[in-house]
């Protein structure tokens, strides 16, 4: 019956959440570890006679073999068991599988093992998920806003830095409506704001609904506060009209509306009619959760043979057995058994297997009167394989337990990220190509020169040109490129002094002057040097005149070669007195 079902449900609930009761075998003993019990027993053996000593030793040995069982596992703040736990004792070696709470990600093997000492052995296997920090210029928030009838966990700080968070709580007898925590976020990379909006604290009270012929399955008590729930069913021969699970909402009312229990008999009171006239037609209505077997009206007619025509029947509405491919059912409730595996009123709680994620709403579904699961059962798709590796970098964070798993990359020291830092898994593939890590080259040092682009660092494949100062020349190639190895290719050139045309002698004299020991020697050397320069200058002028004379002579010879008659005429004209 429903009453017995309620009691069983409550008993299971108590078993799942109760602590292991102590057993006082001997004063000072404990059942948590069999070694401690044995030690407690042995400590008393020396106070008894030999015959009793043997019996107690035997008891000690027997106890040591049976007291290795574990009690209920501890309640973990970061995870919960995948399957419902109804037992209070677990054998040594029992392994329980756990899954992380929302907001936590798996980092280790999620198993608890009952060891030989009667203790649950495990390591922390879930860690809080972390958000990526955006690139900030300034992310400072003012103190979080205060709320009426409540307070926040922040102190007396004058300001809060980016990603700081505070938690709100309400005064006694007030209910918190909204988000429990808010965080310091940033708008436009400069403005610090608290997000989301802070909650409010209101006094919300719902009274226990008065439903004739109803049985309360869960949620007992005269008063309820915000989000409290109660589940009801109806006594035998009564049907529930409305939702069996209702919640106390902010308007101090139940949502959905409080259901009612109505008689399963037809409105037409047949008990007052034991005899019906021939031709009388009676109409039937299937109870909620049932439907006609045939697609025909539910009517019977009194025939002349004083018999009723055959009637269409009602059958229970069944919901299809969920496709459990890659899905785990973590909890379920079935009111009925028989032809249907799941029928109207049943519900199941589920989650995707490890390495799979839901592509639709997940959590809990219930079987409705039309034979469908609402919300719709999810489909679980496999998570993408591990994200691709990149040269000179790695993925620092991979989050798989989200609707769209993601991987975030970072570069090794001396390299800078180019492309999308975060890629997402969708439809078995990673969206966006993984980023690249470009090498960073330090600014080349150029003495007596300058760069075409002047920066502290240069990215791989970036090209710069070297220009030397006046009087200096480039030794090497002017154009160099930042290579993948964080070096410049080709080798960085240098700027060396180049003497302008006509200045070679000055350079030679400068070198000579630097080697003389006294000013007098320098003076004499300068005079000599001046004289040598003058001699060189005269030699240049002599050579110039000789070159000019030589050219003139060559020109005259050419004239004699080509014009001999003219030469005779000119001679007679120039010297007329000669015989």
Automatic annotation (TrEMBL):
Supply the name of the protein: Sushi domain-containing protein
GO biological process, any? regulation of immune response
Q: Which residues form the Sushi domain?
A: 68-128, 139-203, 204-263, 317-382, 439-497
In this entry, which stretches build a coiled coil? none
What PROSITE patterns does the entry give? SUSHI
Q: Which organism is it from?
A: Pan paniscus (Pygmy chimpanzee)
Q: List the disulfide bonds.
A: 141-184, 234-261, 468-495
A Pfam family that the UniProt record links to this protein: Sushi
Keyword line: Disulfide bond, Glycoprotein, Repeat, Signal, Sushi
């Amino acid at each position: 019956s429903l009453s017995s079902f309620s009691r069983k449900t409550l008993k299971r609930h108590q078993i799942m959440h109760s602590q292991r009761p102590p057993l006082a075998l001997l004063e000072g003993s404990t059942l948590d570890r069999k070694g401690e019990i044995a030690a407690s027993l042995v400590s008393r053996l020396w106070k008894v006679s030999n015959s009793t000593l043997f019996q107690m030793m035997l008891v000690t040995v027997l106890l040591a073999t049976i007291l290795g069982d574990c009690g209920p596992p501890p309640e973990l703040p970061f995870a919960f068991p995948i399957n419902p736990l109804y037992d209070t004792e677990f054998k040594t070696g029992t392994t329980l599988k756990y899954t992380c709470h929302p907001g936590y990600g798996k980092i280790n093997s999620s198993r608890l093992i009952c060891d030989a000492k009667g203790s649950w052995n495990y390591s922390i296997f879930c860690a809080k998920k972390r958000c990526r920090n955006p690139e900030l210029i300034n992310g400072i928030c003012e103190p979080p806003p205060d709320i009426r009838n409540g307070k926040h966990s922040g102190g007396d700080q004058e300001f809060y830095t980016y990603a700081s968070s505070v938690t709100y709580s309400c005064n006694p007898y007030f209910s918190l409506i909204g988000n429990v925590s808010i965080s310091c976020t940033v708008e436009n990379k400069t403005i610090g704001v608290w997000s989301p909006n802070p909650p409010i604290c209101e006094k919300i009270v719902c009274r226990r609904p008065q439903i004739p012929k109803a049985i309360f399955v869960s949620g007992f008590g005269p008063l309820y506060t915000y989000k409290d729930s109660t589940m009801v069913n109806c006594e035998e021969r009564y049907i529930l009209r409305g939702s069996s699970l209702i919640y106390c909402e902010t308007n101090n009312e139940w949502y959905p509306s409080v259901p009612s229990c109505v008689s399963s008999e037809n409105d037409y009171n047949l008990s007052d009619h034991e005899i019906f006239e021939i031709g009388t037609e009676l109409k039937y209505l299937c109870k909620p959760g049932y439907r006609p077997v045939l697609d025909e009206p539910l009517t019977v007619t009194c025939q002349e043979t004083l018999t009723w025509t055959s009637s269409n029947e009602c059958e229970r509405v069944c919901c299809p057995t969920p496709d459990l491919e890659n899905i785990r059912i973590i909890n379920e409730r079935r009111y009925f058994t028989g032809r249907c595996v799941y029928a109207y009123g049943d519900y199941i709680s589920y989650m995707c297997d490890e390495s799979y994620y839901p592509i639709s709403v997940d959590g809990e579904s219930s079987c409705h009167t039309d034979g469908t699961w609402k919300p719709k059962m999810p489909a679980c798709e496999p998570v993408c394989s591990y994200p691709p590796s990149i040269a000179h970098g790695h993925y620092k964070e991979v989050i798989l337990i989200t609707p769209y798993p993601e991987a975030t990359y970072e570069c090794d020291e001396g390299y800078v990220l180019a492309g999308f830092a975060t890629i997402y898994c969708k439809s078995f593939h990673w969206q966006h190509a993984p980023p690249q890590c470009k090498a960073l080259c330090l600014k080349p040092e150029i003495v007596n020169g300058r760069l075409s682009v002047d920066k502290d660092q240069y990215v791989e494949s970036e090209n710069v040109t070297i220009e030397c100062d006046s009087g200096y020349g480039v030794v090497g190639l002017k154009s160099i490129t930042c290579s993948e190895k964080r070096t410049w290719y080709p080798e960085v050139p240098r700027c060396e002094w180049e003497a302008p045309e006509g200045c070679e002698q000055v350079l030679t004299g400068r070198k000579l002057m630097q080697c003389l020991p006294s000013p007098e020697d320098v003076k004499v050397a300068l005079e000599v040097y001046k004289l040598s320069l003058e001699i060189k200058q005269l030699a240049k002028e002599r050579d110039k005149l000789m070159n000019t004379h030589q050219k003139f002579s060559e020109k005259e010879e050419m004239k004699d070669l080509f014009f001999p008659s003219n030469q005779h005429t000119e001679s007679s004209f120039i010297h007329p007195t000669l015989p």
